[in-house]
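At your convenience, could you comment on the folded chain following this short note?
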Amino acid sequence: MKNVKIIIDNKDLVVPEGTTILEAAKKVNINIPHLCYHPDQAIKANCRLCVVEVAGSKKLTPACSSFVFEGMEIRTNTKKVRDMQTGVLELILANHDQNCLQCLRNGTCELQDLCRRFNISKTNLEDTVEALPLDDTNPSLVRDSSKCVKCNRCVEACQKTQEVHVLTHSHRSVHYNITPAYEMPLEDTLCVFCGQCAAVCPTGAIVEKDETQKVWDAIYDPRKHVIVQVAPAVRVALGDSFNLPKGDIVTGKMVAALRRLGIEQVFDTNFTADLTILEEANELIKRITEGGTLPLITSCSPGWVNFIEGRYDHLLDHLSTCKSPQQMFGSLSKTYYADLIGLDPKDIFTVSIMPCTAKKYEAQRPEFEKDGVRDVDVALTTRELARMIQASGIEFTDLEEDQFDNPFGIGTGAGAIFGASGGVTEAALRTAYEVITGKGLPNLNFLQVRGLEGIKEATIDLDGLELKVAVAQGLSNAKVLLKQIQNGTSPYAFIEIMGCPGGCIGGGGQPIKSTLEVKAKRMKALYKIDADLPLRKSHKNPDIIKLYDEYLGAPLGEKSHELLHTHYHSRNKKYDFSSLKK
């Protein structure tokens, strides 16, 4: 590719032809302000905060959508530029709810950061904030249109990245708005609650439903025995909230922090990820050998489950009946664990720390409650856990490492990689190979299903039986595989689908600014955890073996089916979450 010579703020620079001014400036550590731009999305050029002066041009030039050319001279910090940027910010603030102290994004808001940069604490323009209704009737997400800056990031995430097509534009001019069709609340749409809209929103216009107070109340209640499970993807993302390098593995510090918060037992969701593999691998084997519905599709990702229930309910027979690791843990916490410690299940308060906003929806599903007792009482996102730690004044980076508690404290490397796209498939193959062939697996690493590609596939030789598998990350890619099944052209026996791009490492509840570059670092960290563990196969987990021997019996057995499996339903029969409005 041809290189061009340019000058930015009196700095000489050589960059490839086709580089935008914004990208070129980053190479010399110049951060041009922007609001609608996102590195993983298409260029929008509608906020006009990134304008610069280009020699020879009478007009200001948007840096995000303008490409460099040979000899280009750019000034990013002139009076004309700053006056324009300040004016744009003041216009946005005039139509923005500025009650920042009550906003979940306080401290992580891009608009707030820009106002601080330009020393703007208020606008002299007339306040034009509309009293728009708050959309908070679903279990997962809260939409506050009074904080929307019309950047359209959420629309792209919903329509192009996920192809869910719930969020769209409405009206024009001063009434222009981002909303579901007919301005319906999210609970009345086929929103999958993946939270990818919240993950890219620069402000607090779309955020996770905060449930931290419920956990604090349980901790302070002497009648409650509070336990926590932590998903694998959380331990490689939580450090972002405490300015640690991206992808840092903070497992030990995370466990120590949870103990400081007052949690009585801290358990590892990797344990029930291993349990999921035992059930799911045996389910796959049974379908292959007994002529069941193929391909078998994973059911670990609640956003994906919401998607197939709402749009492809005629394919539900392909979905694994396994509960997700979160719900398997919840079920065991109110049965096996309750019996083990001699407590009434009603006195056990089970908290999940998840990278996912859809996990909140999953935890509230009616089928995951028995005799008035929920399997999982509260599902918190990684962001919510970070806020609890910060609110407690805990110096996270200075904590000494601690370990998970038993009996749900041992997880294998197979459980750890559940957090990355392809990880469930790789974990399942490690077990399915040895169960089917009776032989040790010569190589545990299935590199074909690793990485951030949208769709990955592999063919595995199981001692003469060829098993073709596919992996899709993000719901737009899931559609491709589902259409093959519809058309009768799917060549696969097993399909893994994760609702979020990158898998759980890119979940909608992860720390803000989870770009593709950041996701790649988290994925690498999970595979490092796997490689460093002495146990890397789910069926070799000694505590899983003990659980089956002493309580569950056998995979797919009567007890396992009762506690670890479920049936998914068409969302045409909508769940009623009205009780959550109270």
